[in-house]
Specification:
Strand order of the largest sheet: 1-2
Largest sheet: 2 strands, antiparallel
Structural class: mainly alpha
Helix content: 55-70%
Keywords: Membrane, Transmembrane, Transmembrane helix
Order of helices and strands: HHHHHEEH
Radius of gyration: 17 Å
Number of helices: 6
Number of domains: 1
Strand content: 5-15%
């Protein structure tokens, strides 16, 4: 399970690449930092998507750090802890697909709107790393076949 930890930690720090205007794009949270006027930022769906993914990436960071630190405290994560990591990755993947295809309901100046977010290489990389971390999680601690 410790092999999965870097795949949960890395997306949080790679998102920092999306803070500037890079060829990779803004990533999952890029719209949050691009807004010049905070009053106008609250009206765009990209801002709300960015906040949502910022929370999910922070949860992934905490989960990845726990995978590294719990063995140092001689605490073995149980099946529920592994399942929680898989649910976290599943939630991130589902919300990523929804925000990139149909969009999620977000508040706007004319009421609630459905607007899909643009797809960029950095966001694909972040979701791919999270998905790889979820696939590396094993309920039996890496002994024998994965279940």
């Amino acid at each position: 399970m410790r092999r999965a930890a870097p795949f949960f930690i890395l997306p949080f720090f790679l998102q920092l690449l999306g803070l500037g205007d890079t060829p990779l794009g803004g990533g999952l949270c890029g719209e949050v930092f691009r807004a010049q006027d905070p009053a106008l930022a609250l009206k765009t769906p990209g801002f709300w998507y960015g906040l949502l993914f910022m929370v999910l990436l922070a949860l992934e960071l905490g989960y990845g750090l726990s995978l590294l630190l719990l063995p140092l405290l001689e605490v073995r994560p149980g099946k529920g802890w592994v399942r929680a990591g898989r649910y976290l990755v599943g939630t991130l993947l589902l919300l990523f697909l929804l925000t990139r295809t149909t969009g999620l309901p977000t508040p706007g100046p004319g009421g609630w709107t459905l607007e899909p977010a643009p797809l960029d290489p950095l966001s694909l990389l972040l979701v791919g790393l999270s998905l790889a971390g979820g696939l590396l999680l094993r309920e039996n601690g890496g002994h024998g076949a994965a279940s």
